[in-house]
Design a protein that fits this description.
This protein is an alpha/beta fold. It has a domain at about 10-190 and about 230-255: Rossmann fold (3-Layer(aba) Sandwich), CATH 3.40.50.720. The chain has ten helices and 13 strands. The protein has helices spanning about 20-30, 75-85, 100-105, 105-125, 160-180, 200-210, 235-245, 260-270, 300-305, 315-330; strands spanning about 10-15, 35-40, 65-70, 90, 130-135, 180-185, 190, 220, 225-230, 230, 250-255, 260, 280-285. Strands 3-2-1-4-5-6-11 form a seven-stranded parallel beta sheet, sandwiched between helices. The protein has a two-stranded parallel ribbon with strand order 7-10. Helix 1 links the parallel strand 1 (about 10-15) and strand 2. Helix 6 (about 200-210) packs parallel to helix 8 and helix 8 crosses helix 10 (about 315-330). The mean pLDDT is about 95. Bound molecules: NADP nicotinamide-adenine-dinucleotide phosphate (NAP) and ligand G4F.
Length: about 350
């Protein structure tokens, strides 16, 4: 591990308003970092996940600073890096939805692939000795059979997977070509109560809460046979941080190693509320993908051995955590705001 410096570090996070960005910002603030979060401009508020740690610009000694920019704007990334001079950069920003990447492949490539390259090039142009974390994905393995580890070949099955593969190799290339401390965290699916509502786990747990409250009667899903390795997001951001504290930059798989089908997750989530999922779930081909990733199950031996990281929460406990959170959220919601089904 890197020796701790007397000065608390400065970190920059792209995608700070996302699931992982919010947990990572919490973690780094707790470790004493000053955190600069980059967020894109949207026409309505997109800061719900970080509202609880927001610090007003006039707060004396504030350690969470937000900046508006976009991963499509390379010049703004250079300017921000020169201004902030971070010790560590975490590139979590992306168009991260696999199904959507088939509808918007060029946008996905621009943000998810070229965005990562723009950031690496900005670090090089700014001439900083900054450590870079790239949010790589198990989607890159695609059709390669499990268990997948750092040596498994990539065979992406979506525009998102292809974009992440380019970002992965750009990260390796900047490490080899320019000596930049740049790492890939190859993270398998990780979820939480802050997961976006259209990813399958959150779509399910949100539906369970609404069905239990009598607000929804059916849940429409696509392929229930897909196998995923679902872990708990707050644990995964700790692995990201550990990767940047090593003597040498390297790439790591982060996973639980526990396989489960969408059907297994359904049983765990509905079961947590005492419901039988088969009474409520309907098939809708709209949610199937032109090419599916059938099985993702990670082998995180390297992370366990070198980072001392291991997943504690597996899919069944995760489903319970998420269902309980969605039930609490619904109970706290004013009645007039309860309409809406995630698709
Ligand atoms: P997420 O919740 O979808 O968050 C993505 C973040 O990227 C959000 O803050 C989003 O902003 C931001 N973003 C989107 N387009 C942008 C743009 N053009 N410029 C700047 N920012 C932009 O994703 P996550 O689950 O936290 O995942 C974090 C990263 O890890 C992503 O790169 C994802 O692809 C990758 N990853 C995730 C998993 C997983 O299972 N969660 C697994 C492997 C890899 P808004 O809030 O405004 O939308
Ligand atoms: O929850 P998902 O949309 O996640 P997916 O495609 O595995 O991608 C997530 O994990 C990746 C890591 O492997 C990340 F890189 C990526 O950013 C994202 O976080 O779908 C999971 C499975 C798929 O097989 C899908 O076909 O669930 C299946 N599914 C079945 N019905 C559905 C649905 N997925 C969604 N989103 N919605 C459905 O109605």
């Amino acid at each position: 591990m890197r020796p701790t410096t007397a000065r608390p570090g400065t970190a920059m996070i792209t995608g700070v308003t996302g699931q992982d960005g919010s947990y990572l910002a919490e973690l780094l603030l707790a470790k004493g970092y000053t955190v600069h979060g980059l967020m894109r401009r949207t026409s309505s508020f997109n800061t719900e996940r970080i509202d609880h740690i927001y610090q007003d610009p006039h707060t004396p000694g504030r350690r969470l600073v937000l900046h508006h920019t976009d991963l499509s704007d390379g010049v703004s990334l250079v300017n921000l890096l020169r201004e902030i001079r971070p010790d560590e950069v975490y590139n979590l920003g992306a168009q991260s939805h696999v199904r959507v990447s088939f509808d918007a492949p060029l946008h996905t490539a621009d943000v998810t692939a070229l965005g990562a390259l723009r950031l690496l090039e900005a670090v090089r142009a700014a001439g900083l000795d900054t450590r870079v974390y790239q949010a790589s994905s198990s989607e890159m393995f695609g059709a390669t059979p499990p268990p997948q580890n750092e040596h498994s070949p990539f065979h992406p099955r979506s525009p998102y997977g292809c974009a992440k593969a380019m970002a992965y190799w750009s990260t390796v290339n900047y490490r080899e070509a320019y000596g930049i401390y740049a790492v890939n965290g190859i993270l398998f699916n990780h979820e939480s109560p802050r997961r976006g509502e259209t990813f399958v786990t959150r779509k399910i747990t949100r539906a369970v809460a609404r069905i239990e409250a009598g607000l929804q009667h059916e849940l429409h899903l696509g392929n229930l046979d897909a196998v995923r390795d679902w872990g708990y997001a707050p644990e995964y951001v700790e692995a990201m941080w550990r990767m940047l504290q090593q003597q040498e930059p390297d790439d790591y798989v982060v996973a639980t190693g526990v396989p489960a089908t969408v059907r297994d997750f359904l049983a765990a989530a509905f079961g947590a509320a005492g419901l039988d999922w088969q009474r409520y779930v309907r098939h809708d081909p709209k949610y199937e993908r032109p090419a599916e990733v059938d099985q993702l199950v990670g082998d995180a031996t390297k992370a366990r051995t070198l980072l001392g990281w291991e997943a504690a929460v597996h899919y069944d406990e995760l489903a319970r955590i998420m269902v309980e959170a969605d039930m609490r959220r619904l109970a706290d919601m004013p009645v007039r705001s309860r309409a809406g089904v995630a698709s």
